[in-house]
Amino acid sequence: MAFASNSGSGPMADMNVTPLVDVMLVLLIIFMVTAPTLSYPIDVNLPQKSLNPPPQTKTPPPPIRLRIDASGQVYWNDAPQPLSAIQNMMEVEVNRDPTNQPMLEVDTSPDADYGILAKVLAHAKNANMEKIGFVQNN
Questions:
Q1: Rounded to whole angstroms, how far apart are CA atoms 65 and 134?
Q2: Any residues with CB less than 8 A from the CB of 106 and at least 6 apart, and which?
């Protein structure tokens, strides 16, 4: 007699949601595992260890200060430049003396768009710049 909880009111219409929750948890785990592999890395040529470094006979040229502000404006040695002109300017600097390139010091605003920085780094790679550093100003 204790089993009669819904007697006389018709068939029970409650849906069992346990299989649905199980499927959703499995899908969540699959997305969490595969999401990090969907990012696109940028290939960077890192310097290799050398037991006998070549002697530096030339004085290095002054560094190039490249700054990206929060609005996406790119500054080449404190002069605003369009993003389309940056690669040509880098190629000119590299072609002056390919063995003694200037250091490219990249300074970005914390609020700057990552896409602008990615384009600048792609331009530097296409221009064969080998000395790239990141500067943090507080």
A1: 10
A2: 66, 67, 68, 117, 120, 121, 132, 133, 134, 135
The dihedrals phi and psi of 107, each to the nearest 5 degrees, come to -125, 120
The partner residues of 105 in beta bridges, in order of sequence, read 65, 133
How far is it, in rounded angstroms, from Cα 58 to Cα 38?
A: 44
- At 49-66, the pLDDT tens digits run 888 877 777 788 899 999
Cβ atoms of 100 and 61 closer than 8 Å: yes
- Show Cβ contacts of residue 134 under 8 Å, excluding neighbours closer than 6 positions: 105, 106, 107, 108
The number of CA neighbours under 13 Å toward the Cβ of 13 is: 2
Q: With 60 as the cut, is the pLDDT of residue 31 above it?
A: yes
Under DSSP, the state recorded for 67 is E
What pLDDT, in 10s, does the model give residues 70-115? 988 999 998 999 988 998 999 998 888 888 888 999 999 888 888 9
Per-residue confidence band for 9, with pLDDT thresholds at 50, 70 and 90: low
